[in-house]
Amino acid sequence: MLGSILINPEALYEVLSFLRVEDFFIVRHAWIWEAILNLHERRDPLDYLTLVNELEQQGRLADTGGAAYILSLINKTPSALNAAGYGRIVERMAIRRRLIEAAGRIARVAHSEETDIDEVINRSEQAIFEVTERRLTRELVPVSQVVSDYFDHVSLLARQQEDVMGVPTGFVDLDRLLGGMQKSDLLIVAARPGMGKSSWLNSVVLNAARNRQRVALFSLEMSNEQLVQRFVSAETHIPSHKLREGKLDERDWAQFVAATQRIGELPIYLDDTPALSTQELRTKARRLYLEYGLDLIMIDYLQLMTTPYRSENRVQEISFISRSLKQLARELNVPVVAAAQLSRAVEQRTDKRPVLSDLRESGCLGGDTLVYLPRKGHHVPIRDLAGGVGFEVLSLNTQTWKLQTSTVSNAFCTGTKPVFRLTTQLGRTIRATGNHKFLTLGGWRRLDELHGNDHIALPRTLEGPMAQTMPDDVHWDKIRSIEPDGETDVYDLTVPGPSNFVANNIIVHNSIEQDSDVVVFIYRDNYYNAESPEGNRAEMHIAKHRNGPTGTVHLVFIPELTQFQNAAAVNIDLDRL
Fold first, then answer.
1. Which residues of the chain register pLDDT less than 50?
2. pTM of the entire structure?
3. In sequence order, what are the residues at sequence separation of 6 or more whose Cβ sits closer than 8 angstroms to the Cβ of residue 177?
4. Are residues 522 and 577 in the same domain?
5. Range of 229's domain?
6. Which end of the chain is more exposed for a tag (fewer CB within 10 A), N or C?
7. Cα–Cα dist 126/319, whole Å
8. Cis-peptide, bond into residue 301, ω within 30° of zero
């Protein structure tokens, strides 16, 4: 391989994307490859003489065998046209050596009896995936290839107008709107507790698996046995309470036996690890993908997941989790569907249908709130910033406790909501919704969790017309009062990085940008109103669809079976319920 590149330097580009210095077993070959890379980095010509000179300057020429050895590499090369093939041989042998090394590390940690068995398993999996991780990376491709693949995809869609090209949910109207669940997409299905988000996920798992889609369901809320019970109930129409108590008549038993056999043959993989971390999820999903193949990942539910690091800011943790799920969807090229639980803010409104701002897990500020713009040197009402992006605001770096300028990625109105007026002992005041977070001595806390004895963070340096320099960047001011202040249009900003900004000369939290491609809200009116004319009808509101239309479709929820079905075709034996 080295000789091929020296004969034909253009062949270097065929192996640069995958071959590393550490892939070479013989040290002098690694040194030669490193010298070649150094020449390439400096854009120096690559040939026999420049390589020899580079090795000589590094003091390695004699140790590599001298100029004669470099010449022998050229003379012993059968063909300069097979550089990529030779490079793949080097890569494969390197992977084999790493696997042998990983196996040794696994054996050593397994023999260590003082190490907890869960830690042994985690280290073992990590050792294996450190080896295989590189094989999942992507390379640059010419746009002509992407266009060709896209043309073929659209041609296939045109020929199969009646087919769902993504992974089907099994719900006709929803699949028609979404085109199925698309590869590499992150879909968030959100609702308040009791709306049936877990039931919807279970229904989709069964529907997709019946279409021979390989599905992984990670349930942080229910055990595997509880999941199977719901699967059986959905398959047989036997109410869950009868299965839970084992009260099955002869007819039920016959259906139970047949259903368990059918479900057992479906390509469904279950994991009920509580407090699953993003790293554990990724490891398990990748292993399943490599061993059996994978078409769909389902997670129930997002807020129960954990992160590798500890943060006092749960909103930022949730943002990290959703970003990790999106990365996993892209890496494995499969749709990832995560259920999410909405905050109590939904139930503070007359119309309790969820909206996108409910998913952001942060509150909002009154439209007259003043935001300081450092580049312009003056304050602007937050309502005037709505729709803007790319402008700078002041924010607090909570690592250094210094004020800094940060760029806003989104500014938006979240509707009309009840607000409270918070006033501090220094007379600073702000109008915000009850769920908006302020920085306290104990971390970020919602306004409706604050009391008169709490202290919140203010910038010691007041900007603009009220400029006044103080010794430190943060002052902890005591809250004087929090009072209801009617309803008003409210707004928020997204500030990537620090996730906060200065408003009305108070440090406030920001809205976390969603990484999802699709957001679906579940709403059942009869949950709040038993006399609702909607009955068991459930609304599936597609509030965000990055690559397609939004809208609302209707399903029917069967509470006795904890199951969703198509609204136009509900086939239930009511005598059995």
1. 138, 464-471, 569-574, 576-577
2. 0.59
3. 542, 545, 548, 549, 551, 553
4. yes
5. 164-360+516-577
6. C
7. 24
8. yes
